[in-house]
Amino acid sequence: MTRPIRVADRVWVATTTGRGGRPGPAPASRHRDDLRRAAALPEWRAREFLAGRGLLRELLAAVRPDLADAEIAPGPRGRPGLRGHPGVGVSVSHTEGGVAAGVAVGRAVGVDLQHPADRVGPALARRLLPGHVEQLAALPPERAAAEVAWVWTAQEACVKASGAGLAGRPWTIDVAPGARTGHWAGYRWTALRDHSTTPLSCAYTAHTG
Fold first, then answer.
1. CA 113 to CA 139: how far, in whole Å?
2. How far is it, in rounded angstroms, from Cα 173 to Cα 159?
3. What is the pTM of this model?
4. How far lies 164's CA from each of 45, 52, 112, 159, 205, in Å?
5. Phi and psi dihedrals of 162, rounded to 5?
6. What is the arrangement of strands in the sheet containing 109-113, beginning at the earlier edge strand?
7. b/e for 38-71, b at 16 or more Cβ within 10 A?
8. Are 159 and 175 within 8 A, CB to CB?
């Protein structure tokens, strides 16, 4: 785990993808509840699941050690939560070669990590950035693909924080290429461009509970 990133008041993110070098390994959770849930999953998914839970527990140990052993249970739409601690938001994201986790006290939180594609077709660009297609088209293909990934992480982080998931239609959230922060429906999002080699964004409720 890289050093926890303080995104906002009582909001932290951890990732295995730092600013330099190769992504570090995610620590596989050995927590009894996590192992029990992983046992019902296919082998590849169990590895991914335990990596995400392990990173989340490391982050909890760093910022809220009293909750590091709490049961992490899926809620509506599969959104994870800490059983018995509804005021603490948690989120996990996986992508090729990386894992990210978020913790927020008194706020909802969503994190999303996305390895960029090699290039992005015009149809996807129009769907995710309908108001910014010309700006995206002016970029070299590799840079355009990276910007689409950054945009998607911000959009996904928002709907994860809200608990809506894909039903929240993340592609309708207006995020411009190169943007670092923004607001959507009572949530604030931040693209962690200074902290991760892989596109990574965090969203959280704009006001503490």
1. 22
2. 9
3. 0.92
4. 23, 20, 14, 5, 14
5. -75, -20
6. 109-113, 200-205, 187-191, 181-184
7. beeeeeeebebbbbbbbbbbbbbeebbeebeebe
8. no
The per-residue pLDDT string of the chain (209 residues; one tens digit each, 9 = 90 and over) reads 668 999 999 999 999 987 654 556 678 999 999 999 999 999 999 999 999 999 999 999 999 999 999 999 988 777 899 999 999 999 999 998 799 999 999 999 999 999 998 888 888 888 888 889 888 888 999 999 999 999 999 999 999 999 998 888 999 999 999 999 999 999 999 999 999 989 999 999 987 65
Q: Which residues contact 66 (CB under 8 A, 6 or more apart)?
A: none
Those residues whose C-beta lies under 8 Å from the C-beta of residue 42, and which sit 6 or more positions away, are: none
Domain boundaries, the chain: 5-205
CB-based contact 121:141 (threshold 8 Å): no
